[in-house]
Amino acid sequence: MSADIVICGLGPAGRALAHRCLARGLSVTAVDPNPRRRWQATYAAWTDELPPWLDDATVAATVAEPIAYGAQAHAIPRSYTVLNTARFQQSLDLTGATVIAGRASALGRHTVTVDSGRVLRAGRVIDARGLRRRPGRAEQTAYGIVVEHLDQDIPALFMDWRSDNGTGPGAARSFLYTIPLGGGSVLFEETCLVGAPPIGLDELARRLRHRLRVRGIPWQGDERVERVRFPVVGGTPGAGRFGAAGGYMHPATGYSVAAALVAADDIAAGRPGPRITAHAVYRLRRAGLRALLALPPDELPRFFDTFFDLDVDLQRAYISGHSDLTGTVTAMTRLFAALPGRTRARLAAATLHFPALSHTRSGSVIME
To answer: Which of 64-73, 235-244, 246-255, 357-366 has the highest average model confidence (pLDDT)?
Structure first.
C-alpha cells in the first residue's frame, strides 16, 4: 500500500510535519524506532516564531522581556514562550497515520526500507531523523534542574555569562539559562550550547550547583534533572530532508524546533521554501559558529553585550528562521563593526579557516 508521504523520525520536527500533513487530508506513514517515547527536553521559542495553528494549551509560561547578561544586563524587548513538553507532544495528534516502530535503513525518493526488511512506498519521502553524534562535530551540552514551589521572585535569564559558577580564569565559559515552567516551577540550566569538544555534563552540573549556592537558590538534590547533548552541525537544506536533518537547526544556537514548526505547513503542501537562500544563510551561520568557537573565554561576555546592543530586529534576523539572507548579512555586518579590533581579527581569521587562531573549547553560542 502506498501513502502520500512517509516521514522518518517522530521527534518534534517529524511529528509536527506528520500532524500538518494529516490536517491537509494526506495519507501519512511515520517510521520511528520508539514512536511512543515521551519527550523529556524543555522546548521554548520566541513568541513571534510560533505558528498560529499551535494549540494555546501547549504554552506553559510566557516572559515579556527576558534578560541577557554579558558583562551587563540587557532587557530583550521580545516575548519568549516556554512550552509544556507533554501537552506539546500530545497536541501534535497523529490520529489517522500509520505508525511503524522500526529504523529506516534506506531512503529513496519514493521508498523507505525498514530494518525489518519491509519496503514502504509513498509519493514523497521525508527524512526527519535529526543528527547523529560523530567525533569532531560541535555539540550542545547542558545540565539543568527543575526547582518547584519557589517562594522568591526569579528573573527569566535568557543567558547569563556572569562568572559566579566557580570557574577560574581561562576556563571554557558556560552560562546560566533560567526560565519559568509554570505552576511555580523554574528550570535552572548551566549551558554550553556549542563546543568542539563541548563542556562535559558532570562539569556543568558542578558549575550549576555552585552558582545556585552563591545566589541563594534553595534546592534539595532530588529535583528532576534535564541533560542535553546533541550535535548542531551535519544537516543541510534540501528536498526530502526536514528539521535538523534538513538544515533547520541554527548551527550557532542548536535550535531548530520553531523553524520546523513554522515550515511544516509549507512542506506538507509540497512547497519546499526558498532553498537557495536557505543554503546561503546556513553557510553564513556555519561561518558564525566557527567565529564563536575561535573566541577566547574572556572575550565572550563582551561579544554578547555587543550582540544584545543591536536593534532587536537584527537580533531576530540572525537567530530566527532559516532563510532571511539580507537580515542575516546585515546583523553579522553590524555586529562585526561594533566589536573591538582584536576580536574582529579573531573572527575574520576563523571565518577564513585560519586554524591557528581557533579556540574550540569556547563552549558558547548565541542562544535562540
So the answer is: 64-73
Q: What are the cell numbers at 231?
A: 550535535
Question: CA 262 from chain center: how many Å?
Answer: 14
pTM, two decimal places: 0.91
Which one-letter DSSP state was computed for residue 38? P
- Its sign, for the CA torsion 188, 194, 195, 200, is positive
> CA torsion 156→157→158→164, rounded to 10°?
-160
- CA angle in degrees (0–180, nearest 5) for 156-224-365: 45
Closest CA to 180 of 160, 159, 156: 156
Q: Max alpha carbon distance in the chain (Å)?
A: 63
Q: Are 237 and 280 in contact (CB under 8 A)?
A: no
HSE of 75, CA atoms in CB hemisphere, 13 A = 5
> Are the C-beta atoms of 277 and 325 separated by less than 8 Å?
yes
Which regions of 185-237 does DSSP assign to beta strands (E)? Answer: 185-195, 224-231
- Closest by CA position to 87, among listed 41, 130, 55, 133: 55
Q: Kindly report the CATH class assigned to 2-131+232-268.
A: alpha beta
CA distances from 119 to 31, 59, 86, 168, 303 (A): 11, 39, 32, 56, 51
From the options 3.30.300, 3.40.50, 3.30.1450, 3.30.70, give the CATH code of 139-231: 3.30.70
**Nearest to 138, CA basis, from 31, 236, 207, 229:** 229
Question: What is the average pLDDT value for the chain, to the nearest integer?
Answer: 90
